[in-house]
Amino acid sequence: MTRMRSALIVPLALAxxxxxxxxxxxxxxxxxxxxGSYNEASHWSAGYVPKGEPGESVCITESGSYTVTLGGHVxxxxxxxxxxxxxxxxxxxxxxxxxxxxxxxxETSNFxxxxxxxxxxxxxxxxxxxxxxxxxTRYQSGESLGASADIETPTFxxxxxxxxxxxxxxxxxxxxxxxxxxxxxxxxxxxxxxAEVADQFTWTGTNKGTITVHSGASLRLAPGGTxxxxxxxxxxxxxxxxxxxxxxxxxxxxxxxxxxxxxxxxGGGSAATLxxxxxxxxxxxxxxxxxxxxxxxxxTVTATDxxxxxxxxxxxxxxxxxxxxxxxxxxxxxxxxxxxxxxxHGGIANKGVIDASSGNKRRVDLGxxxxxxxxxxxxxxxxxxxxxxxxxxxxxxxxxxAPGAVFGMTQGAPVTNEAAGTISPEIAxxxxxxxxxxxxxxCAGGSKFMAGGxxxxxxxxxxxxxxxxxxxxxxxxxxxFEGTFGAVSNGFSADYSHKQSGYVGLVYGxxxxxxxxxxSTTPTTSHPTTGxxxxxxxxxxxxxxxxxxxxxxxxxxASKAGTVxxxxxxxxxxxxxxxxxxxxxxxxxxxxGHGEWSHHKTIKVQASLKVGKQSYGTSKSVKL
Length: 624
Known about the structure:
- By secondary structure, the chain is mainly beta.
- It has a domain at 538-623: Immunoglobulins (Immunoglobulin-like, Sandwich), CATH 2.60.40.
- Helix content is 2%, strand content 53%.
- It is built from two helices and 60 strands.
- The strands form four sheets. The protein has a 51-stranded mixed sheet that branches. A four-stranded antiparallel sheet has the order 57-56-59-60.
- The longest helix is centred in the last third of the chain and has 8 residues, at 593-600.
- It starts with a strand and ends with a strand.
């Protein structure tokens, strides 16, 4: 039979709530005589190995350089009140070696524990080595050799060096504590294996020293029981070449540089929390987590959606998160999975960069208010970023939308592009460009985009459109576009004339009708008139539209062979290949088409012709 924990140690540790700090009295049993085994009575001033008697205070404080080794079973009836290690000079090394051992009831025990009822403290001249091994003894064949190397005490204080070098990966190192403090000048070096700080009750810790986790090694901070909570306040440098995970606990980041891999703050049955304020480096929140405080410059926090076919939630604690660094909202977007990353319960004041990206069948859903401040960037780098009815946004900075990405609004969500704000859709081809989708869901009504400030389209990948090419960047799918932009830059103008047809377009290579690029402009390819002089016909012209109870018959004339798309408010979008010449195309009503046109009595039909990489457009209003 194998036991993982001793029945003796835990009750003694829990009894410490009734012990006052005064119990850490003068030493009752002191180490003497240089290096040796903790279990050798000749090294102790009392003439016996500490027994765990009431008021017993153990000291290993003799100056000089020596090593005290603890392996296998601690040969005592219990733990002392306190253990103090550290002299005034030299280096006092305490080497705890995890070895299996056989107890008095013929059971194999796989732990070695240095325990104290109240406190264990290591001074600045000390080195604590925690080494789990595959060695020791066992009662019968088939049982595991080796043991964990554990520290068990309500309060653990370290001002020296801690080295975790687990020789056998099946056995972790444990700190079973209520308070775990690495003081200024201390260091924790997890060289191999797993080091875990945990307790079945709530515990707190601080790091003012240095934490290093090597490649392949892990540091895990977690509560050990239901309803418990783990909190670590970090103020020191952290080098994470392996894995550091806060599980169902809280990491309070108050300073220090984090280098290497991100620190993972992850919830399971209950949410984990990153409480941020200072320091550089990276954190990752993979599921069901909370993020509060300030993301400072030089720091990146990534919230991801890792749960297939489910919704992952990121909560902001009913507070305003200040972002001065980089905040990443990321959905992996597996082709076979659905779901989304939902952000709620608070707001964001963005002064840094928000990078939002999701993939196929996924989206990032913001149920929060965002103030995008001057200098702030909201970068939709992929997929769909959506504001729902619980959110709103005021843009005084920059909104970037990558080709193929969508900045969406639904359920009555309002977005205001203020005078200092710029919205910048990126255009890679006639069919690949950033879009703003103004949608309406079942209950809260249509969303609103209130124009103002600047729209600055950016051509990418070497693409140059034909003069007059129009891009339906702002799609009206039940939402509304209000006002006009104060300026339209980078060789584009805004076309507000197609709102009834379901979009506001951006036209390349034409001047705006009014100063600042805010007026309505008809594309040169759409057969406009100027005064009484007719402009030459474009490559595609709508010659005639006939309406029936089933839909429309649209007669177009194309001067070139290509792909024609017929669309409009209340119409099913229809795409056909055509040769040069005249062609009749049948277009059906959408579900809402009959009701919409019976009210407006007018149909505005759009036709576009794509020839290679160039697109040409025209439109025609038809009375019913």
